Amino acid sequence: MPFQFKQFTISDDNCSMKVGVDAVLLGAWCNVDGAARILDIGTGSGLIALMLAQRSPATIHAIDIEQMAAAQASWNALGSPWPGRISVENISLQQYILTCNEYYDLVVCNPPFFNNSLLSPAALRNQARHSGDMPHDILAMACAHLTTPGGKCCVILPVPESALFEQLMRAEGFYPAQLMLVSPKPGKKANRVMIQYERNPVQEPRHE
Known about the structure:
By secondary structure, this protein is an alpha/beta fold. The protein has helices at residues 21-29, 47-55, 67-78, 93-99, 123-129, 136-146, 159-171, and strands at residues 3-4, 9-10, 37-41, 59-64, 86-90, 104-109, 147-158, 175-182, 192-198, 206-207. Helix 1 (21-29) runs parallel beside helix 2. The radius of gyration is 16 Å and the shape is globular.
């Protein structure tokens, strides 16, 4: 059954990873101020791209390695109020870095989380959940290579993986500027963190 948002509808039946809380949170939290061009890496159903189109006048390019997901994201974008501002491409991040000649004010990614966990029998679900096809060092490199000088990168990760990813981002010259811890339930320990990275280091990232 399609998901109805404020101004658009999302279908995800052809995507290995379905509409989830993490993507909704990231799409609502990202700072889109001043962003004229946005890149959504690993777009899946196109949910984050559509949320950012709803929240900004930016032109948005979305990529996904999974052919059926990219096709569904394109279909969802075409059925939205912003078909002229969202484009979708079926391509791996590694290939996109090599061929892209554009720069973005904001790069957004709800990346594959797990580096060393058990694999699912479903190959496409592994692709979406595990970092083998999008290693986190490649994602950090993409943030450095595809952003404008003042560009930002926003991700959501499990808390343990976020510490490792921060090391990779710092090696590429990016530093956490803003973050939000996410708890599964009130009173529970945070298990996710949303982080905005920028090139200018700050003494203490702003917590929300």
